[in-house]
């Protein structure tokens, strides 16, 4: 490659100002030659084809088109795809790895706000904030909103499904609390789990023992409805489910039944389907909070992704290992 490799941006225009503000763009230009300066949202145009002929690095983000065999043929010099967002599964497939192209993702950086959201949700769920706030607003005369019996994070058992990037960050942050931690992950050993400060159990045992359960696993055929009706039945009365991973991991119909009975609470940043229909019961229940897939990086947090991606470009240019490197066999386990 030349001293300053050629790079192209490929992402939705709305993301650019916050991902790569002027100072980060200036830093990027000291590392690479951006051609064209315009951001590509399609690889099928004549202008895109001309740019791809000389590209060494694709700096991608949300909305990057699929990088298929035709794109790789049009980009014979491509050596790296640096993704300034989380999952690469939508735009990178096995053919990219077969060509020997290095792939990196800012998923570790994107996991930070998700972990922060999760811990906040756990604290609020342990206080049963949703139900008590509803009673305070609508049934204040009854006075039952005052009672904190059986609430609070202290001494609670928290079950984490998935030792993903986010799952591990959640574990790390929860060490600051006086809680018991359980972990279910088929790829971990008990020794590894102990090193993470938790106890390895299967999903059924995790459901039976947890006061609060949080999900951080990818959407795969084997994780579809991982929390199905049978496993939701295993949860204690008063338990809470937090889901910031993928909606398909939870059987929505079964969860709705339990929440409607008031037996368990839920904080859902993802749902199945997503979004839920406007008249769905989960949107109206006082013990359920549904947020519009906002736990990941937004607003000011997007800069963290841009900083990670530009640092990855710098590491690649210097011939150093990529911190966010993705391998071909990782694709089957990514969110």
From TrEMBL:
<protein>
    <submittedName>
        <fullName>Hydroxyacid dehydrogenase</fullName>
    </submittedName>
</protein>
<dbReference type="Pfam" id="PF02826">
    <property type="entry name" value="2-Hacid_dh_C"/>
</dbReference>
<keyword id="KW-0560">Oxidoreductase</keyword>
<dbReference type="InterPro" id="IPR006140">
    <property type="entry name" value="D-isomer_DH_NAD-bd"/>
</dbReference>
<dbReference type="InterPro" id="IPR050857">
    <property type="entry name" value="D-2-hydroxyacid_DH"/>
</dbReference>
<feature type="domain" description="D-isomer specific 2-hydroxyacid dehydrogenase NAD-binding">
    <location>
        <begin position="121"/>
        <end position="295"/>
    </location>
</feature>
<keyword id="KW-0520">NAD</keyword>
<comment type="similarity">
    <text>Belongs to the D-isomer specific 2-hydroxyacid dehydrogenase family.</text>
</comment>
<dbReference type="InterPro" id="IPR036291">
    <property type="entry name" value="NAD(P)-bd_dom_sf"/>
</dbReference>
